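Hello Y.,

Per our agreement to keep a running log of every chain we model this quarter, I'm adding this entry. I've kept the format consistent with earlier entries: sequence first, then predicted structure.
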Amino acid sequence: MKKTTAGIHHITAIVGNPQENVDFYADVLGLRLVKKTVNFDDPGTYHLYFGNEGGQPGTIITFFPWDGAQKGRIGSGQVGTTTFVAPEESLNFWEKRLANFSVKVSKETRFNEEFIQFKDPHGLHLEIVARKEGANSKWDKNSISPDKAIKGFGGAVLNTATPYKTANLLEHVMGMEKVGQEAEYLRFQSYGNLGNILDINLAASPRGIMGVGTVHHIAFRASDFNDHKEWQTHLDEIGFYPTDVKDRDYFEAIYFREQGGLLFEIATDPPGFTRDESFTELGEELKLPKWLESKRSQIEDLLTPFEN
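Predicted structure for the entry above:
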């Protein structure tokens, strides 16, 4: 069976205080908080989703805010850098905006593209690249116009203990095209127009330690539920032995650990975030899966309030 993913569905990271998390991603980066729910496997913790105006696949960065949790270490077996993409000719805007919020930036060039790099308040490594492809975001809050606003993901940089095995996975299992190698990076590209480029860092790094400021997992797109089942069969036949299908309310998910140590997920594009909120009300109320509704009061008592 041959399978090909359109690219990244979402990236999930561990952070600290939820108010600091919301302030940075909504106020500084201008993303929309499209869903406020809980970690289904740890309901005493928020699961916050940010993206474009509707939280379309390829735009969604999600967080488990564990206030006071141990600081992690970025290293092999993790996404090293999460890449956002903005419209062409917008990097100067972003460099100035980040400076206005006292965010330190640096620059790197990879594959003839310029990236501005910075960290979020909890140490997560981020960067912004400007590209033509991908629809502009229509979420125009916080004085960021659509011709400057972050569209979604440009991709990610992967740190792996076995870079060439991870490369083989991306090309021959995930169906991505190898673009080439430049210095210490291998580049792969999928057919989607957002979240479509992955760079593998060939430089050795210590094993990553999960904690605040690190990416928990990276998820790739399945177009629908039938495609998702095919991915499960495909991965099982190759020997990656994915999990059973998990119902995450806004998508269905399977997980597997690749040979370089990264936790990969395959997530369905449907049903999306308007299944339990209208488009205009996305992210306003705490949403719980049906099986947790009876425990709402206990869960709300455990969660740290924040304002969006």
